[in-house]
Amino acid sequence: MKILAIDTSTLVMGVAILEEKRVLGELITNSHKKHSIRLMPAMAQLFEELELTLEDIDLLAVTKGPGSYTGIRIGVTTAKTLSWAHQIPLYGISTLAVLAENGFHFNGWIVPLLDARRERVYVGIYQREVEQLRAIYSPQIMTITKLLDILKKQEKPVLFLGDDCERYAEQIKMHLSNQAKFGTLAENIPKPSQLGYLAWGKLQQKEAPETEQFAPDYLQLTQAEVNWLKQHNHGGKHEN
Amino acid sequence: MKKPIVLGIETSCDETSAAVVSGGTHLLSNVVSSQVKLHQRFGGVVPEVASRKHVERITWIIQEALDQAKVSLKELDAIAVTKGPGLVGALLIGISAAKALSFATGIPLVPVHHIAGHVYANHLIKPLPFPLVALVVSGGHTELLFMEKHNRFERLGKTMDDAAGEAFDKVARLMGLPYPGGPEIDRLAKKGEPIYDLPRAWLEPGSLHFSFSGLKSAVIQFLQQMKSQKKEVDQHHLASSFQTAVVDVLIEKSINAVRKTGVQHLLLAGGVSANRQLRQQLTERCRKENITLQIPPPELCTDNAAMIAAAGTYQYLDGHFADLTLNADPNYEMNQRVE
After folding, report:
1. Both B34 and B151 in a single domain?
2. What is the value of ipTM here, to two decimals?
3. Radius of gyration over every alpha carbon of chain B, rounded to an integer in angstroms
4. For residue A238, is pLDDT > 50?
5. Sequence-ordered alpha helix ranges (H) in chain B
6. Measured between CB atoms, which of A38, A41, A216 is closest to B55?
7. N or C: which end of chain A has fewer CB within 10 A?
8. Are B110 and B230 contained in the same domain?
9. How far apart are CA B326 and CA B337, in angstroms?
10. How many CB atoms lie within 10 A of CB B105?
């Protein structure tokens, strides 16, 4: 059983190939984006170095968001197409769930976050239970203030993960002081190997793989839809 | 030699489309999922909404195109995809799918210019009669092209500001008509007469370039004037006056381009070629001038992947391929492709 994992949902671009019990290889960059140019050549390189082809792959994994809208779509479209062309089952997994795995051994709440601009974050809250992480708060968008309020009430140690935590570090320390811990540099970037591992878990659990209609989980409506709804809720009396 | 079978993929704006074409001329399937209804409530195409829909549909559309053509992936000789111009986020969906498919199957990848595609829509009806002049008019483009042979495009003229179709949409919005405005204006114009005096932008004498933003401004001024004078505007007459101003310029410049290049054949392409008045008047004019005119049926005038597959077939035959670094180019220039 070999697994190919693809993540292009943030500034990080990652490709990994795993066996059930072993990471065979992974390529990660955390620099300029250009994921659309670099993803396929990176994947081709990884296959070549491992002397494997797509024929050897039995399972596909992709991050389905949140993150950069365009980035997520590049990964999802690529994964969906590979899955369809070779009839390989595919699982879409939250970028935040992948990032949370970097804090697997932490005793307390694991809080992976991505900046969503305007003082809002994409965030999930995870905790280890027996041999896996469970989402206490599933991935969602909320203001940093609301997140800090939730965490403060719990009085548990909290591990923040993700490069974007830097942006809110002052605020976090002010609200949570010693309760807050931060990931190491390596723990702050989502690993495609973790993504592949999570997909393998889903297969073990016999979860249904994605269909060809599979689409990203942006966690937000488009701005045009938000504006439209605003206008039409105020003018609700005139609408049927 | 065996006729190449080419899969085309097009996602440059608000249609998700895949098609299979054999030998560059024979249409085996052309599946188009239009998002017009989805964008209607916003009064125009919203790029992010379009991209989201493309991702959802793309795999199913490709599958459907192959199924309808009764062709398997293994039988394909090339995968042709729109590289640009268009909405970058939307283009990237087609390109990501095409690259993944090429990687998965080893089938060569061919990047296609969207406008070249529009011209090749004609090739699916009747082989392109070289040398020729083509007028491509759509929501995003207004161009006059000269073609001596396959894959060779020389641009004679283009719009300096708005595309003709864009002018239709903008004026329709001013008139309070729903999106897309082109068909609405065409429908109203049928019952009107061009009695309102609107300008035609000829630019400098002999110029084959276009400009439509002045016409749009003239409509705004006209509407304001009528309002301040408390005069009623006849929507039918206004639609007819505006449409005639656009069509007059398109026809005159196309005929001029044919004369200048000394060719016998004129091709019409792009979404606006569905316009009734443009089709009728251009047909009459070409008959008088002894020019043969070719216009594709409406379903091949709007964005579709069959035209991309047709254009892609000749690039494939010329050995013009892309590797896995292929990227979307929202401002893709035609001469970049012709080298």
Report:
1. no
2. 0.94
3. 20
4. no
5. 36-40, 47-69, 88-105, 114-120, 164-174, 181-189, 213-228, 235-261, 276-289, 298-301, 305-317, 334-338
6. A216
7. C
8. no
9. 13
10. 15
